Amino acid sequence: MGRGRRSRIRARRLALDFERTNNFTLAVLETIRSLLDDEIRPAVDKWFAQKLEPLRQPLEKRREVLREMRRSVRAALDAERIETKRKQVLYQAGVIVPALVLAAFALSSVIRRIRVSSRTYICGLA
Description:
Elements: H1 2-15, H2 23-35, H3 41-122
């Protein structure tokens, strides 16, 4: 039984950590702070702010890293969109230009036949 009691006490010691200020400790401190009167609260707020500052610094650094990652991803997506558009234009040009050349060739062939047949008709060779 003594061993079980020690583990419970150890768990309680770890739950309230004033050195590293974990989330549970912050929640308990916030609750205690709300119960204090106006004379003591400024001193507790100052201490509380001092304890929170080391926790905020890594979060600010992570937030800035995430912002930079977001900028990089957006730039990569923009570059990919531009490349995709360029490929689409090249593909369309690769399809449309030969089709236009073929159509022009076919049209010129038809026009030649019309000219030949109209000459033949005009000359009375028909």
